[in-house]
User: Fold this.
Amino acid sequence: MKLYLLTLGKLLLFWLCFFFVGRLIFLLVYHGMAAGVSFGEVAACFLHALRLDVSTACYLLVLPVILLSLSLCFRSRWLRIVLDGFMLLAMLVCSLVQMGEIAVYGEWLSKLNYKILLYLRRPMEIVRTATGGQLFFSLLAIVLMVGGFFLIYRRLVSRPAVVPVRRRWLWSPLALLFSGTLCFVGMRGGFNAIPITQSAAYYSTCTMLNDAAVNPTWNLICSFYDFGDVDPNRYRFMDDSEAEALVAQVREAENGTPVSLWGGKRVNVVFILLESWSADLIESLSGTQGVADCFHGLEADGMLFTRFYSNGHRSQQAMASLFSGFPPLPMYDITDDFSKYSRLPSLAADLKRAGYHTSFYFGGNLDYGNIRSYLLHCGFERMVEEKDLDRRLPRGKLGIHDQYLFDIHHAALNSEREPFMSVLFTLSSHSPYDQPRLREVGEVPIRHEETPFLNSVRYCDYFLGRYFEAVRMEPWYPNTLFVIMGDHSHPTHLGTRNLTPEYQHVPCLLYGEVLPDSLRGKKCDRVVSQVDVAASLLCQLGLDASAYCWGKDMFQSFAPQFAYFESYTGSGWIRPQAAYVGEQTGEGWRGTWYGDSLQYKVVERESKAYLQHLYKWYCH
Assistant:
């Protein structure tokens, strides 16, 4: 039994060394892309890569675990032959992926992904476009990697061989159960509530180092799983030229005089992103008194958008919509598709170039939805999450409770240099709603199956109010704009149906002394959404917003009014008088209309054109 466990340990170490060498070659080839980066940060690549390497190794250990467990029962030469053959094949595949990534990275500037299938359909084109030197050195590296490591495996790992033991019928199943459990835990990256993602390896503002830290085999398999079925013609309702022309017509603004709120003054910007807050929670929108009373109280000195919509139904979709102005797609999250990052603009990066200091605060784990990797690409200079916070702080299953995060954020802004852009992303209103039950907060006067969620919102809302009571005393407060909004919706006691325009309705409040007196306490009923925020802020700050082509300036009365949202396998489209939601079903495309029946054909055609044009952009 000791020999069995020793062999498994050696196999795990073997794969970690294999990945280490491949990563070292990658870093040596592309060391020029890390110019100006300290040696310590480059070396940290190996440490941050460890979790994904272990996860990949555990997947590769599944068959060896089964074969070695059988070896505890049976003395069979065939078991060893099969194990040796599998190891040789696995080494060949992994080295092909590693060296293939090294070969294309300089051209693609992204890791190998599902698109490699398109090229493998015509392998001779790959051969013809590569130089003789590239082909020679790639093949040589593969031969040396596979040959060298297989020799190490045969001499140091597979010997001495595992042999049957006493009470084999007892120990073999126990060994399989124990080892299989460890492999499963390793695959998912530990006991955390959120399974491991590529974000676990992201740590640097240098894109090349982050790409090097992500295990290439793990990433390629994940890419096939998530995006391998991308079909450029999936949402094709009309000629591309017709769809493009119709979208351009929808985006076209009327003539008018631009509104300047601050005259280009570089005000601080603080986003407070409220987890799962829907309009049904806000009394002055479509909600009920007693749920978010502190938010409602802030409206008296703020500007409330009464027809503001989330573009998706998950937090990572809200991030891309807010900070890159890119709408979410049906079926695919762009935060998972690392190959598309380079095409996305970034509000944080644009403000950083204008002299802003940027930060992001979250009480949980940013691995969810690959948010960490996306935010690092966006250029946030400081990112604080649960693992960075004091271990003594009370927390729930998902992380630090909101009452403590608000205090942490307040203290951090006191030491931040102006101008700054900072994001506070709340957590407590996400299930399992294990926030503290505090007497001063109380509970909602509603009895419903969603009462636990409503109480979590009331808890967050109470400390949102406390937060503003505290920050109003700070010297940076008079020069700060607060953008308070829900990231996506959630079912409530009012029963608003999912995949409807009403369900996408979320609160958005602009707040702060920087707002002109004429806008305080006012309500704006224009149809706007999260993708409009980045372009609107940049325009008001006197900065270039042309890269945010999917959004519009939400402060201008002459800007077009529309809101797009993703609906799992289709999309929704909202205009002032009517709305349309389309879904791809097993029986074909199915549509539902809302509002003015005279506008049904118009909104349906606009919706399909927008989705087609957006999907075409993504696929190319």
In short: The chain has a mean pLDDT of 89.
